[in-house]
Amino acid sequence: MSNRTLHPDATVIDGYALLWKWPSEGTVNDFVTDVKNRVKKYLDKTDMYLVFGRYYDFSTKSVARGGRKPG
Q1: Which site among 16, 29, 35, 39 is 20 to 30 Å from 51 CA-CA?
Q2: pLDDT for res 58
Q3: What are the CA-CA distances from residue 7 to residues 2, 24, 49, 59, 67 (Å)?
Q4: Is 26 a domain residue?
Q5: What is the chain written as a DSSP string?
Q6: Tens digit of pLDDT for each residue in 9-62?
Q7: pTM value?
Q8: Structural domain includes residue 66
Q9: Would 39 be classed as within a structural domain?
Q10: Does 71 map to a domain?
């Protein structure tokens, strides 16, 4: 059961999900600035762990990721 009065000591972020949101407009510099600003918001509140996982062949994530490929 969720307790809304909890204050986490750390935040774990999926690095690929963080980078997935590519803007429809702007430059690479704008994208990098946006990512840095989002990371800073987390760091202002808690320690943050940025995790980049692997997609192993035939894993659930691998199959889901393959379903997003165009074509």
Answers
A1: 29
A2: 66
A3: 12, 34, 16, 33, 36
A4: yes
A5: ---TT---SEEEEEHHHHHH---SSS-HHHHHHHHHHHHHHHHHHSEEEEE-----TTSHHHHHHHHTS--
A6: 888 888 888 887 777 788 889 889 988 998 899 889 888 888 887 766 666 666
A7: 0.56
A8: no
A9: yes
A10: no
